[in-house]
Amino acid sequence: MEAADLTKGALEKGAWRTSSHSGSGGGGCVEVADNLPGVIGVRDSKNRSGPALRFAPDVWRAFIAEVKSGSFDVAP
Question: Residue 45: is its pLDDT beyond 50?
Fold first, then answer.
């Protein structure tokens, strides 16, 4: 899976949204920007000025499909 740091200029152009599974308690969450040309940006919501990862859109869609299918669920 390809991932690389986005430049600060590209980050500023991102329309970042917080995960819908994020609570209001300030826990560990991610933000996603899907309006960047040819990439999906992902960053830590607690460190918005820090580094972000970029993924090819098809790779991101495959990852999301696996998450939704329960592939990464851990039994209690």
Answer: yes
SS3 (DSSP) at 67: helix
Cα separation values, 5 from 26, 39, 47, 51, Å = 24, 11, 14, 6
Give the residue extent of every domain in the chain.
4-19+29-69
Token pair listed for 76: 């209690």
Contact (Cβ atoms closer than 8 angstroms) between residue 39 and residue 55: yes
| Helix or strand (DSSP H, E) at 75 | none
Taking CA atoms, 48 is separated from 1, 22, 59, in Å, by 23, 15, 23
Does the global pTM surpass 0.90?
no
